[in-house]
Amino acid sequence: MKKSDSLPVCDFCFKYNETFRHLTKDEIDILSYVKSCNNYKRGDTVYHEGNRTGGIYCVSEGIIKHYKTGIDGKEQIIRFSKKGDVFGFRSILSEEPACTTTKVIKKASLCYIPSTQFLKFIRTNTNFSMFILKLSCRELGDANQYIMDIAQKNVRERLAEILLLLNDNFGTDKNGVLNISLTREELAGIVGTATESVIRLLSEFKKDGIVKLNRRKIKLIDTKRLKKITDVY
Questions:
Q1: pLDDT at 15 over 70
Q2: Sequential DSSP letters for 118-185
Q3: Distance CA 79, CA 210 (A)
Q4: Tens digit of each residue's pLDDT (9 = 90 or more) over 59-111
């Protein structure tokens, strides 16, 4: 982690970030003054599961993964955060330690907002507090959907669904390659299966002309077939 030489300008970031659009001009000025920003490289840990965060984070650049660690040390990836997303607020609102470990998978610039100021915005700005409430409910709904998928869909169906979600959330570059680069272990950590199973299924998808693979790069060739695989329920 390295302290950023220049702070991202909040007014510019709001172009990508809907969370803080509910703040007033005076509150934005306060936010710009109290925040701090740091640069992270791939593999850096922002905070560990069970730790107190002391504030919330806003992603100015990069991609972050949030995961829980099983008894065997295996990662179960819960979700990702990308440019414009905020994270860390659940433990602040609940006054509990972080429930996940947060690690950088694409070099990132993160702005840190102290919990005291975040909570002050919650207490004094109704629109902002309502948005945070909706955001919390949305994350809970996503978690419930994930649990249902784990229970009802087989590994092939879950992998197809994850590839489509990554495409929806991160898009592709000019060559049609997903804008998020994951190891096979990380993919297995999202799907909730063994790495060997993900490797085998990706090979099958490649053989069937559904995807193209180049190390960690994945290009979706036939999204209709992926949707057919996952639209079982």
A1: no
A2: HHHHHHH-HHHHHHHHHHHHHHHHHHHHHHHHHHHS-HHHHHHHHHHHHHHHH-B-TTSBBS----HH
A3: 24
A4: 989 999 999 887 777 888 888 999 889 999 989 998 999 989 999 999 999 99
Q: Give the total number of structural domains in the chain.
A: 2
Distance between CA 142 and CA 85 in Å, rounded? 15
| Domain that includes residue 178, residue range | 153-230
| Residue 99 amino acid letter | C
- Listed in sequence order, the residues at least 6 apart from 83 whose beta carbon sits closer than 8 Å to its beta carbon are 16, 59, 60, 61, 62
Residue 146 falls inside a structural domain: no
- In angstroms, the CA 81 to CA 126 distance is 25
Identify whether 148 is part of a domain.
no
- CATH number of the domain that 97 lies in? 2.60.120.10
Q: Which amino acid belongs to residue 47?
A: Y
